[in-house]
Amino acid sequence: MISILRSLWLVFRHLFTRRVTVEYPEEMPYLAPRYRGRIVLTRDPDGDERCVACNLCAVACPPDCISLQKMEDADGRWRPEFFRINFSRCIMCGLCEDACPTYAIQLTPDFEMCEYDRQNMVYEKEDLLINGPGKYHEYSFYRHAGKTVSGKAKGEAAGEAKPVNVKSLNL
Amino acid sequence: MLKAGNAQAMATITIDNRQYEVDDGQNLLSACLSLKKNLPYFCWHPALGSVGACRQCAVVLFKDADDQRGTLVMSCMTPVKDGAIYSIDAPTAQDFRAGIIENLMTNHPHDCPVCEEGGECHLQDMTLMSGHTQRRFQGRKRTHNNQYLGPFINHEMNRCITCYRCVRFYRDHAGGTDLQALGRNHQVYFGRQEDGLLDNGFSGNLVEVCPTGVFTDKTYSRHYVRKWDLQTAPSVCEHCAVGCNTAPGARRDGKGDPRQLRRVTNLFHRQINGYFLCDRGRFGYEYANSAARIYTPQAALTQPLIQTTAGSAKVHQSLSPADAVARLAVTIAQMRSGNRRVIGIGSSRSSLENNFALQTLVGREHFYAGLDERSLALLKLVDRIQRDPRVHSPGTPEIERADMVIVLGEDIADTAPRIALAVRQAARSAQIARAGELKIPAWQDDSVRQLTGIRTPLLVASAERTDLDDIASCRVRAAPEQMVALADVLAQALTAESGEIHAPDIAGLDTGEFTALVEQLKQARHPVIVSGCGLQSQELLQAAARLAFAVAGHKEANHRQTDSREARAALYLACPEANSLGLAQLCDARQNLNQLHRERQSEHTPQPTTLLVMEADLYRQLPASVADQLCAGVDEIIQLEIVHNRTSARADLILPAAATPEYEGTLVNSGGLAQRHYAVYEGSGWIQASWRWLADAAAASGELAGAELSGDEETHARLQSLARWRHVTQLSVALAESYPELAPLAELGPDWDQTIEGQKTARQPHRYSGRTAIQAERQVAEYKPLPDDDAPMAFSMEGIQFACQSPLQANNWAPGWNSNQAIHCYQPKPGAARLGHSSGQPLARKAVVFHSDSAAGDAARPTADPSDGFRILPLYRMFGSGELSNYAGAIASVTEEPFAVFHPQDLELLSLTAGQQIAITESGDRWQLLAKVSDTIPRHCIGVSTGFTQMASIPGAYIEREQIAPGDA
Ligand code: SF4
Ligand code: SF4
Ligand code: SF4
Ligand code: SF4
Ligand code: FES
Fold first, then answer.
1. Less CB within 10 Å around the terminal CB: N or C of chain B?
2. Cβ < 6 Å from ligand 3: which residues?
3. In this predicted complex, what is the ipTM?
4. What is the CATH number that goes with domain B138-289?
């Protein structure tokens, strides 16, 4: 009896607290940039695709909804030949973003992804790739990596010394 | 592998306050790994021993129970000692190891995401194991330029941690010379003097031996996926008859590309390949992805206009599998009603089950081996010799321990490469034995190698220079007859009580050398004799057998080996194809292609005839003229084939057959071991195992009206059983019942429904990614994994994941061990046979004493008279002589053009010059070859490249002088 009264009182009290729900979609709630919504693939500051097809996002993904294939370009860069996210399976957990060593894959504050046909929830690289660096403006993986790509020879990455001449005495 | 002696003494040691019983005589690292302790290491390798170079394996050794400080020791350099006390977890040891790895990592590039080793990198594993997770070093990284090392191996020198494993494998183990440790200080460079193809045939093992991503598989990189994304199953290498176990890795492509096979890696099998594969076996897999691959059934167009413009090659058009089966069914129905004769041609590169299905379809009397007379006779001879109770086929560990090796005529480095690698180790067995006398354990690699000048006696008799010449204590270049003479004199010397034995007349073999050989052979307790079908000489095989029998007799008489197994002589006879010996069990010597040709020529029956060719290229076995006649003499050719070849060009109906990693079957290797290979992936298009096509068509033919009305009972019964088979294991059982030799097939592996505790074995690792996305482009709902009708395995990640639990698990992974080093988790101790691994059963061949067909003297025919002709000596190449591997892109790109090797004087005699194109013509065939000169080839002999795609079959054994002429450049 007492507990029923208590519950009634609690519900009654809530009539006077501030509402947290809004009249979506007339009113859009504020979502922080770090909100975990629709996933994009970003570009590095030079405008090159960031993704190096390392597959770490794919293996981190709990519902296994990322699939891609590595290929190597003439410029020596690894890239995804295709990059597919099946959003009908994605749980927006953000583990892919956590796993990504290049900041290529990022979650955005857009969650409005509704489709009548589930097939339309399958996004390919062309659908995912945006024209900017996303949340991380500076980072470019290949400036740090040891792998040679066109425009960056051995010894030219950040923190690297000039290549050794094996035939010298190297004292 | 390097361990000597059988009876193992045990030692009780204490590690971190717990007592363990371990095998004595090993090093502490190996003992710790046997106990499944996580102890990091780099430079030690179970097959290469210890050198203490990397300092990563440090542990603390305590003087006694009161000692609290202890001393740091390198576990790989410390022999286990009974009663000793060690600690892996002591802070001193942990700090030291963390310091070492931090040091190694100071120069390491920021490459993991774009490194092919990533995800199966021993360095990643060890870094994590040692707890080094944060970079503190702020200085600059030392960098190196890379080298071009050919189409197989990628070089990324910055990733090196200077463990020296690569050069120790490449130079010390495999005998390569062109990979070196260059430079000095912390700038040591592992590479060649200059860019270029690594010329050792085992270079591919660098990919697995190097603990980092310096050496990676270039062919794999072109269609790269991470190790955790590869589905795998135990398989057997199809590129020669050694029967190495492999773990091919496959993954379906997300864009519908039919090429699913991504790479081949080693699957440890102690008796055969151990830790290493040859490059043909590792890179030959690309044939399954080649442009010549057949994915759909094809039928020849019948419009006469197209026929005439295309010559004898036909123009083909795809048709649906149902139509294809229906077409084959019509042929079978006609056969059933007695209105058509169907001749089945089996294959020595296809499984026993496939061959048996074909034999069941056509009947034993219409079944022919897809081999010419000579090849089949050689195989039958090998089979007869191996049945003799006085000899046995040695496995790799036995060859490696041999105290004398005699290689008679077979160029094993090119025809049975893994065996050549074993022989190379045998060359050191004397050194290791001497070390043993000095109480130096075999794993003390550097100390053992200090004992220079001690070599195992190794006689290499060959037609041309071979890759084993550098380790041979005695080299003989001779024609087969001379080798026969040599073997026989050696045999005589062993059996003769006394009396003069004269060295045979062979250029380059003087009496002193010969006497030494005889003496060495008399002393040897475990000699191994190696020969094979390569030179296509029955006399040579028989001579090898006679020598082996003499050795067996000598062993029994002089070494008083009580165990009768010990008294048997070790005789390894190399066969050409992965299932050569298996096919030889299914037919007698008469059932060969030449015989078939003769029969077809002589009889003129009006009955329509079909040639049903299974995974064999007639044009590779027969001279083109003979093959043409054979094809023209029948009114229908149906072929089951993996890749297009000259026979399929003439076929009226082509059915796409599964390649070895796409189906389950049994292959018999040169040693008479029947091994099962499992389907790694499902195969693209309409590919299925050949026996399934035949079974489908047999079933369909039964439904055709009228088929049952006539024809004989026996045929109907055969076809009914063929039509009823659903699982390949049913064929194995039927084979076991039909052929007593093949009885072990019934116990070869788990049947398709034999799950373990209700579970199947997973082909995909537990971290297989992209399951719900990879097919989503075409259909967002996931496909159900295909069922496997042949093995208790799943084409998914569901089921058993650990190789200890299921013999079918080929994924080499254990928690904390993502690299291939995980294999020690599946061995009782490093280097020992895998736990729970049941691959292979020896054939149950009845022991029959072998009687040489000809007496010793008769075999040696006089060499050809230079005035009228030349002997042909078939020469082989690792790249070029393999039928299937020739379709592999990377291998094809480094295969030399077909050649003929002459002695300089012969070249002069024929007025030819080296480097010139020449033509050899014989019975209508014409071979365009590059003339080469070599002073190591015997006179009046021409060494001709064999098995090359461009020339298919090789000229006969004897060529007239007029048949050799300058060719078109
Ligand atoms: S957010 Fe989570 S579920 Fe979605 S793709 Fe990334 S890892 Fe997978
Ligand atoms: S983790 Fe990042 S770089 Fe790697 S494949 Fe995924 S998106 Fe590309
Ligand atoms: S290249 Fe590889 S195997 Fe050779 S020393 Fe460097 S890390 Fe070791
Ligand atoms: S030795 Fe023969 S069986 Fe072994 S990997 Fe090489 S080709 Fe394959
Ligand atoms: S593994 Fe012991 S020092 Fe390298």
1. C
2. B 160-166, 190, 210-212, 214
3. 0.91
4. 3.30.70.20
